C-alpha cells in the first residue's frame, strides 16, 4: 500500500468515525429532547390533575357545608315542631338554605303572631333557643335564621324600601339623614339598599342597642 493510499484510507476512516459520532450525538440529542418533552407533558398533566383535585376539593367542601346547613335545618324543624305541639299552635315548617346559613320559616297559624312579639322580641328569643338546640345536637355554633308569619321577610322588604327612599332624599337635598336605632341584621339590609343608589353612602354610628344607620352624600 502506497503512502497516498494509506493517507486516503486514514481520512476515510476518520470521516466515518466523525459521521458515526455525529449520528450518536444526534441520537442522544433526540432522546434527550424526547425525554424533556415527556417530562414537560407529565408536568402539564400533573398540574392539570392538581387543578382538578383542587376543584373537586372545593366542590366537596361546598357539598359538606350545604349538607351541614340542611342538617341544622332538620334539627331546628324537629325542635320547633315539638314546641308548637306543646304550645298547641298550628303552623307549617319550611326549611331552606340561604347563603351560609340555614333558614327555617313557620307559617299558616292564626296564633303565630304571638311568637313574634313586639318588634320581634319574642321571635329573637325563640331563634336563639333554636340555635342552642342545634348547637347541642351538632356541637357547633349555628347562625340559623328563624322567621315566623313572614315577619322577618316583610321587615326586610320594608327596610330595603326605606333605605332606597332615604338615599334618594339625601341625594336630592345633599343633607345627611339618620335613621332610628336598628339591630345589626336590620342595619345590613339598609346598608345594602343604600349601596344600590349612586352618589350616597351609609355608615353606622352609636353604641348598641341604639346604634343606627346614617346616610350621607358621597
TrEMBL record:
UniProt lists compositionally biased (Acidic residues) regions at 42-75
> Which GO molecular-function terms appear in the entry?
RNA binding
Compositionally biased residues, Polar residues: 1-13
Q: Where are stretches of biased composition, namely Low complexity? A: 29-41
Provide the organism lineage as a comma list: Bacteria, Bacillati, Actinomycetota, Actinomycetes, Mycobacteriales
Protein name per the record: SpoIIIJ-associated protein
> Any idea where the R3H domain is?
153-218
The cross-references to InterPro entries, in alphabetical order and at most eight, read: Jag_KH, KH_dom-like_a/b, KhpB, R3H_dom, R3H_dom_sf, R3H_KhpB
The record lists the organism as Gordonia westfalica
Please list where the region (Disordered) is annotated: 1-76
Taken from the record, one Pfam family name reads R3H
Q: Which residues form a coiled coil?
A: none
Amino acid at each position: 500500500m502506497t503512502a497516498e493510499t494509506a493517507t486516503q484510507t486514514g481520512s476515510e476512516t476518520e470521516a466515518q468515525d466523525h459521521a458515526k459520532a455525529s449520528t450518536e450525538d444526534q441520537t442522544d440529542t433526540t432522546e434527550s429532547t424526547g425525554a424533556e418533552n415527556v417530562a414537560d407533558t407529565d408536568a402539564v398533566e400533573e398540574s392539570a390533575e392538581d387543578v382538578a383535585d383542587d376543584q373537586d376539593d372545593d366542590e366537596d367542601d361546598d357539598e359538606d357545608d350545604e349538607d351541614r346547613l340542611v342538617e341544622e335545618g332538620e334539627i331546628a324543624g324537629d325542635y320547633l315542631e315539638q314546641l308548637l305541639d306543646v304550645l298547641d299552635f298550628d303552623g307549617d315548617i319550611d326549611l331552606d338554605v340561604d347563603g351560609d346559613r340555614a333558614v327555617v320559616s313557620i307559617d299558616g297559624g292564626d296564633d303565630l303572631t304571638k311568637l313574634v312579639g313586639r318588634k320581634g322580641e319574642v321571635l329573637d328569643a325563640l331563634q336563639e333557643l333554636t340555635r342552642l338546640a342545634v348547637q347541642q345536637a351538632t356541637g357547633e355554633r349555628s347562625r340559623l335564621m328563624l322567621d315566623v308569619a313572614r315577619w322577618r321577610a316583610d321587615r326586610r322588604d320594608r327596610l330595603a324600601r326605606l333605605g332606597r327612599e332615604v338615599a334618594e332624599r339625601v341625594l336630592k337635598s345633599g343633607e345627611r339623614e339618620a335613621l332610628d336605632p336598628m339591630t345589626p341584621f336590620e342595619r345590613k339590609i339598609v346598608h345594602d339598599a343604600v349601596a344600590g343608589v349612586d352618589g350616597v353612602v351609609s355608615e353606622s354610628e352609636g353604641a348598641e342597642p341604639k346604634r343606627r344607620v346614617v346616610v350621607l352624600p358621597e
